[in-house]
């Protein structure tokens, strides 16, 4: 399944993704952000699960399975551009700020700001078509919730 998903994701002009594929792409992007500081902590995995539960109305088992699939996909995927392109095509602009908030939730889950996570977040946010200002607002909203 991962190989099939990757082959569709890596096509020069991929077709728009089904909702299940967009879910997997978003989940893999969250995993990539969590892993970007080379410390994929349990608190980050838990935060990803909670985001998946809330965003996709999954139970804890379904969220854990989706995260595990995303971990495998993230490990094999060559770049972040393909994930963000799939998300950008599947998620309306007005809802992409929620995607950025989810990315900040994961990046801040361990209580530390990391330069690698910040850099990946800036790249992904830009590729999603969200401004740095809107990303900063999303980060502030998440920081006040934690």
UniProtKB/TrEMBL annotation:
All copies of domain Co-chaperone DjlA N-terminal, residue ranges: 23-139
Name of one Pfam family that matches: TerB
InterPro entries: DjlA_N, TerB-like
Residues forming coiled coils: none
Name of the protein in its database record: TerB family tellurite resistance protein
């Amino acid at each position: 399944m991962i190989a099939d998903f990757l082959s569709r994701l890596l096509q020069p002009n991929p077709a728009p993704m089904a909702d299940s594929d967009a879910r997997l792409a978003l989940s893999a992007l969250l995993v990539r952000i969590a892993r970007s500081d080379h410390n994929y902590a349990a608190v980050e995995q838990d935060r990803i699960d909670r985001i998946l539960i809330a965003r996709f109305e999954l139970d804890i088992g379904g969220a854990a399975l989706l995260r595990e699939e995303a971990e495998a996909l993230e490990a094999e995927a060559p770049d972040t551009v393909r994930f963000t392109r799939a998300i950008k095509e599947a998620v309306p602009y007005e809802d992409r700020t929620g995607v950025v908030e989810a990315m900040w939730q994961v990046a801040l889950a361990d209580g530390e700001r990391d330069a690698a996570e910040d850099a990946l977040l800036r790249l992904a946010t830009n590729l999603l078509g969200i401004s740095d200002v809107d990303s900063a607002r999303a980060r502030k909203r998440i920081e006040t919730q934690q």
